[in-house]
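Lab meeting prep.
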Amino acid sequence: MEGSLIAGLMLGMAGSLHCIGMCGPLVLMMPSGWLGTVVYHLGRTLTYALLGLIAGLLFQVVDIQAFQSEFSMGIGFVFLSMWAYQRWGISKQGSVAGNENGLKKGVLTLFSTAMKGRHLGWRAVAGMANGLLPCGLVYGAMMAAVGQGTTQGSILLMSGFGLGTIPSLFVLGLLGNKITQAVRKTWSKWLPWWLLVMAMLFLLRGMNLGIPYLSPSVQINSHKGSCCHQR
């Protein structure tokens, strides 16, 4: 189970650059103060843990371990889609703006309402709302969580994922507008290429090429705990 938590932490820390680019504007809306910022991020992590619970429950229905390679490939394609969006989609602001679906609008409304509250509890609500916003990186983490094979493992991976994203966003929240425009442009410049590297790593891992560490050959065994398993 510790491996699931560590894997989540690594995925969260590796995705920090993406988080700064996507969630940074929301974090910068936070009132100054480290305590409120901590509560906010713990609320966001709680949402990820609940999503991990949902992902883990899926394993009770489908024998996911038989599709480990496919899930790794799926995560790779998620990152690849994120790379394509970052590379070409954001620059065309006219085609991106105004296409928010009902769920995203509802979550943003909840976030905006929570941000107006003065009690720390509202910071937790705002963080939980942030965790519900559509995000390719979160989708990739959920696919990895489903592949953990147990509900507890899925929850730990998603919890670790949330915790892994906290340090960079916490520092961003504390520094606020002290971060220069040049630094933000640098983040925007390197983010697409980081996503491409992550995509290639997951795709190679899913190919089972027999390359140690990079693309190891995985022997698939049916998960005996699946409800579909014949006892």
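Slide two material, second protein:
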Amino acid sequence: MKPQILYIHGGMTFKTREHYINYLKTRSIRIENLPHWNEEYMNDELNEYQIIKPKMPCKENSKYLEWKIHFERHTEFIEDGVTLIGFSLGGIFLAKYLSENLYPKKIKSVHLVAPPHEDSLTGEDLTEDWLLQNDLGKIEEQCKNVYLYFSLDDPIIPESQKNKYQEKLKKSTFMIYESANGHFLQPEFEDLISNIKKHK
């Protein structure tokens, strides 16, 4: 059996339905499909892994409890030695879940890419159900190979979010980039691939 990767995609939250409806009415529309590292690139570079990508509920108006339920429904299909990746809202989801719960499978490595930490984002809400507790120690207790990736030119995740994680996760590895095309909107991500394979 191939080693497994469980990837949790990003999403958005809104404090009110009015905010959500306004977003739908005013958001930018793009019809071209730009390549992103979490699509064909990741599949090609990590073809020796079984990559599992759950479609999390209502990603554009996400509720933590709904994501938690859906995430836990996948547990029966996960083997020991899984690699966990969370991008953006998926990153704070894994941070919150692993800091509040003991995952029943052994985790080989955890990778949080541009995760928000608190509700001080640029132009986006982070609702109360997503907020982290002060102690994130359970994350490092459950996995000694924890990586967080931040871009200093990220228009969504300010540097203060990175600093909050650094205060709480003293044993983790932080990968800081001057530019990762903003919110890691890049076609390739060599460091992520390398760090995953390091703990194969």
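Talking points for slide two:
The domain at 4-198 is CATH 3.40.50.1820 (Rossmann fold).
Strands lie at 4-8, 50-52, 82-87, 107-113, 146-151, 173-177.
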